[in-house]
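Example complex used in Figure S2.
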Amino acid sequence: MPKQIHLAAHFPGVNHHTVWTDPSHQPDTQTAFASFEHLARTAERGKLDFLFLAEGLRLREQRGQLVDHDVVGRPDTYTVLAALAGVTSRLGLAGTINATFNEPYELARQFATLDHLSAGRAAWNVVTSSDAFHGANFRRGGYLDHADRYERAREVVEAARALWDAWAADAVVADAATGVYARDRSIGLVRTDGRLVDIEARPTLPRPPQGHPVIIQAGDSDAGRELAAQVADAVFSRHGSLEEGRAFYADVKGRLARYGRSPEDLKILPGASFVLGDTPAEAEERIREIQRQQVRPAVARAFVEQLWNRDLSDYDVDGPLPEIDPLVEAPSITQGRAATFKDPFAVAATWRALAAEKGLSIRELVIEVIGRQSFVGTPEHVADEIDRYVQSDASDGFILVPHLTPHGLDEFVDRVVPLLQERGSFRTEYTGTTLREHLGLPAAGHFGRTLDGVGAADEALPVA
Amino acid sequence: MSESRPFHLAVELSGAGRHPAAWRLPDADAAGLLTAAHWAELVRTAERAGAVFAAFADSVQPPSAATDVVQARLDATGLAALLGPLTARIGLVPVTPVTYAEPFHLAKALATIDIVSGGRVGWQVDVAAPAGSGPGDVQAAQFHGRSAAGAAAQWREAHDVIEVVRRLWDSWEDDAIVLDAATDRYIDRSRVHDVAFTGETFSVAVASITPRSPQGQPIVVARGDSPYALAVAVTGADVIRVAARDVQGAADLVARVRAAVAGSGRPAGSVHVLLDVETLLGADEAAARGRLAELDSLAARAFDPSGLHVVAGVDRAADALADLVELTGVDGIVLQPLAHAGDLALLADEVTPRLRAQGRLVDRPAPGGPDAPRTLRDAFGLDRPISRYTAAR
Ligand SMILES: Cc1cc2nc3c(=O)[nH]c(=O)nc-3n(C[C@H](O)[C@H](O)[C@H](O)COP(=O)(O)O)c2cc1C
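Predicted assembly (857 residues):
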């Protein structure tokens, strides 16, 4: 049997990727529950592993103003997933929630609640953006530096896992005849005494159905990769090309042994977009139209402004790139999105060379740079490519990012999934009930300590 | 009884019911108390009973050492969200202790439940146990770097939390999303507003990440039975819940609440006062008594009512509830069933049909007609407010 592909559906949203100029897009498309329900039901119909929600805790700004040219606004991650739990039965429900601006006690309780209500389908993508820009909306305020935010994430995940483990696996007896609801001394007290997470808590929920909800990690730095190797069950990566994907895959999987883990214990899932056509030519034609809609003039200008770190409102996006140099000393003109340019001068030089070689305007250049879609072609071609990437260890599968909300996944499920199923590399039915089972992950407890009988018996429990 | 005012019935749910042995009754589904199916069934029954809302009790109190009571408790916010798409008319009211919570997260979570329920969320504000009490310190220790504050400070903060959450709910005007391809604008940024709130214990700078929800301002529920809580409820709540040991105590408290509301300058009809009543129902009086005896025999201690309670057959229960409304002057009752399973079914099948037949239940149709979605504001006869930022234009 070929290596099995794992597929997830990203609810598309706050980025340039979503084609909101499509006539189907309404003012409430990005928030209406019907949108989430449609994508979830489509993903479940396609037997996908999970639905994925992103999160950003402050509306993005550029040049001190709200970004208004892309999708703006989204609902709260946790409550949407809880609502989806009631209208789906097998699909995993994965949500991005920040580890810096939430208390571990609350995070553990929310994901335990979601795991109970969905009977074992919850996943938490642990992210760490922690700058003062986001902090301005929270009690915690301020920010943590880069090293500390991963330290905090690790301590938070460990605390959450401790909270999930705190009730002994067989704590709940619920025996009406004998009147024992919870076994004596079976609800442990979790104490963490981390530098950044120092709590003492006794959670209100039994061990979640999955033991531990699935942990996803999305950071790309060395510290992020190390955290993934140490604590995550899956990585949401941005390395989607064959070569970059293989390098990333080898790097992250290579870190697992240090933590006593095997390569299958961590799934690598890059984000991927797709454009289908009946013929290669039709797919090419569609992608050109989609790119024009994604990279509208304001989007192109904003993107170049981010690299140049300057107000470029006087430039014609149908004209050439700026001759002036990027501004590197000044504070970033962009807030609320991860900085992606490490060396602006080098990138600007590359872009100028590319633009000169192909005779590209600003907008055409931006289309070249960010308009790329991962998989373009006939359904047969796209299925071939996805399978090839997975079989050659560029990934364990993909988190699919449609360009339309919420119908963008429909044709993938109708036309590509059956081909992957024919090849025997994607499931035709769910074989398990939990997300851990869909992902082929080892049972939780792998990381968790077995606390049954430990500690709790040593002390008097507070009586309400 | 003279011509009676129609009143609201709501329910508050927790564990398997208020009685410590409720989970041991044969129909209690003790093994399923944490499942979606269990709560969907329960709340659909409450919906069938015509309950204006179901409140979901919650707190940051850890489980106790007792082995004979339900120690597991789901997060009420997630539970209310689950039930949004699974119900059609009933309000969904999670209780949230705000003391250790981030107001920004609360605002968007509640707005989102409003979205997934089509405008049926309510928010019951509570605080954690105060400093100086054992539970206060135990609760605070669950949160990094926090220690318990006194009740006065906690309620002052709750007042700020309501204020900032309400501002966040308004921070997107209703028509902020313009989808104007000609000018490349998804939103009109002049219609998304910084809330710029700085209080004693926290500040929130900018707008919510979530656009304005169906109700605009979800219903805010607060308790009015302590002076600190009442002060906050009077200025910030749409629904004020009270509990009392006896009818006279309840009538006095309700009068105090109404006077406080009037004193605050808010119009009388804009605030609804609801009275907590513990209930145990039976097909008739003997059956109700029998159920109580059975429950008491299963518990370590006999049931100790925390206040007004009705243990009665379905006939008398309907009258007893109507009488309580008449005698105390409340706008409605929050039933706290001693045992969810049996009580909610009897309520739906026997009690509310009687009250309805007598015209005693408020049951406002949706403004858009009987089949149109009805928001919780609609159910209470409260208009949908425009955003304060729209009003300030
Ligand atoms: C019931 C109970 C559960 C605990 N669960 C965890 C846990 O899941 N993770 C963890 O890191 N520590 C856990 N602890 C450990 C405490 O946080 C603390 O480090 C420990 O009790 C130190 O004492 P020891 O050295 O005797 O183990 C738990 C302790 C008790 C008593």
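The pocket of flavin mononucleotide is lined by residues A 158, 162, 165-166, 188-192, 449, 451, 454-456 (CB under 6 Å). Chain A touches chain B through 84 residues (CB under 8 Å).
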